[in-house]
Automatic annotation (TrEMBL):
Residues 34-123 form the DUF559 domain. This is DUF559 domain-containing protein. InterPro entries: DUF559, Endonuclease_DUF559_bact. It comes from the Bacteria. The lineage of its organism: Bacteria, Pseudomonadati, Bacteroidota, Flavobacteriia, Flavobacteriales. It comes from Chryseobacterium potabilaquae.
Amino acid sequence: MKKILTHINGVPIRRNFVKDLSININSFVKGKLLSEVLFWNEVRSKAFHNIDFTRRIMLGNYTVHFYVKALGLIIEIDDTYQDEVLIYEGNRQKYFESLGLQLFRITDHDIKNNLRVVMKDLEDFIVQHYEACTIIQDF
């Protein structure tokens, strides 16, 4: 059974550390989106359920907005959509999923206008994907 990382609204959340993942912390790129700064202020220093978030790192050949190593969770902020961007993002997502990582996407607009809803949606996503289930047997 996987180790418990934290609890969200009384629900135990299990770790999902992905081994042998190429992370390059030396290629830190500072975010330019206001929404990144707003989101970072909500999660930095383990302020969000004592979960450690890393900002703007390379996973393989791709830069991600936020990464939770203990969960194998990527948080991406989407700001614009063009055909080329959609193809690129689809390839990125397939790559991350092939490594066993989960991807949580939020929009720039939602962070700026509905940050509380975004944080609640993130809680719900984590509970849905990382809840430490126990097996209950009927006798």
